[in-house]
Amino acid sequence: MSLRRWVATACGVITAVAVTAVPVHAANPIITTIYTADPAPLVVGNTMYVYAGRDEAPTGTSNFVMREWHVLSSTDAANWTHHGARANIATFGWAGADAWASEVEPRNGKYYWYTSINGNGPGWMNIGVAVGDSPLGPFTDAKGGPLISDSTPNSSGLNIDPTVFVDDDGQAYMYWGGYWGPRAVRLASNMIDTVGSVVTPTGLTNFWEAPWMFKRNGLYYMMYAANDTSGCVTNSNYACQRYATATNPLGPWTHRGVVLGQVSSTTNHAGIVEFNGQWYIVYHNANAPGGGNFRRSVAVDRLYFNADGTIQPVTQTTTGPPPNPGTGGGSGTNIAPSATASTSHVSAWESLAAINNGGTPANSQDRSNLVYGNWPQQGTQWIEYQWPAARSINRSAVYWFDDNQGIDLPASCQLQYWNGSQYVPVPGQSTCGTAGNVDNVITFNPVNTTRLRLQITSRSGYSTGVLEWKAFQS
Ligand code: FUB
């Protein structure tokens, strides 16, 4: 692959972050009003967000001009809304250019945006991290300096393309790297410090750049760009997406094949996510009008797994996937209305009946169909459902109440079930989301139980509340 495309482009600093929400495309590329690259999908509640850099290179130039990161969102993976730039070079006071690939990872009610950015100090690219209270920010520099730089011991030849993953046990990992140099490190629970040494993962055959990590059915997956001509691309100026699997988050990895073949841009950068029960790959190409290697555009297509967990090669389409609006919690019947609710505390002027009265909140401030709140209690509170006979349950969805006064979105939550003698966490549960204005869907291995409990931990100084809590029969 030509190194020419890696030449850094000096660029001015943008100080204002545009805040817009504009409907865009329902076809590939998903946005053609600007050029976008290096997409990173994230599902929060019933919404898929895509974080992408913006390509601003004029026609005919052969360097990246990238100064800001944009956000798009969709509730059906087909129709997209553009939310404008939500971070840019000026977000990181210590940096000066090259807003390259990024990824957002949620934790403890916050959203950590890991970015590739050119620092002003020695060396070239660094990994920075910004933080915000919602998927759309606002985002501010979380650390005041690079998380990874050229002076980090055993860092990559090119410190770009972070992918961050939080395992079920709460341990976070970051992978990154370019120039055939993948690297990995543990992150502290604050998500902005590394723990232990940077390691060089093994088994990522022909790794070039752009790692993307996820977990499915207990197996770890790493997708990454490769540029070999042995089954990947016809010309090593281009790249494909290979993938490997492991039974341990730090490997060793076993190479499994090609997920996404060559695209129309030289670079190939992608992310994989499950949304409303289906799997998607989000990637970039040069297919927008006037597009090119430095004027790329984001596309979305379906991704399919085989029964043995291997991934089928992706079919790139111009239509994009059909709308998948989901069911507000997946398939199955919401059995919450037939349960008897109880709680550790309900405010005298609010109502526990709110949580299972079948309301459809318009937003987290919506009081039109009763609200449950536990003010003035703080710390950990709970709400609970009980059925007269055991039910098999494998999904839940909670819509939080936030009155912008004493009741705020929670810091964290956990779903538990009664195993006959005590409450224990439901097995294999996905992240218990704390986002406002959405159904926060929790999936888990089916449990057969008469009682389900949602344990809610408040943010310091606040109480918590719920507008609707659903439980789905498997
Ligand atoms: O967009 C700049 C760089 O190109 C990214 O960091 C790489 O992954 C490649 O897509």
UniProtKB/TrEMBL annotation:
GO terms for biological process: xylan catabolic process. InterPro entries: Galactose-bd-like_sf, Glyco_hydro_43, Glyco_hydro_beta-prop_sf, Glycosyl_Hydrlase_43_Enz. One of its GO terms (molecular function) is hydrolase activity, hydrolyzing O-glycosyl compounds. The active site is at 38 (proton acceptor), 209 (proton donor). Keywords: Carbohydrate metabolism, Glycosidase, Hydrolase, Polysaccharide degradation, Signal, Xylan degradation. Residues 311-339 are annotated as: Disordered. It comes from Actinoplanes aureus. The lineage of its organism: Bacteria, Bacillati, Actinomycetota, Actinomycetes, Micromonosporales. The record marks 161 as: Important for catalytic activity, responsible for pKa modulation of the active site Glu and correct orientation of both the proton donor and substrate. It comes from the Bacteria. The keyword Hydrolase applies. Belongs to the glycosyl hydrolase 43 family. Residues 1-26 form the signal peptide. This is Glycoside hydrolase family 43 protein.
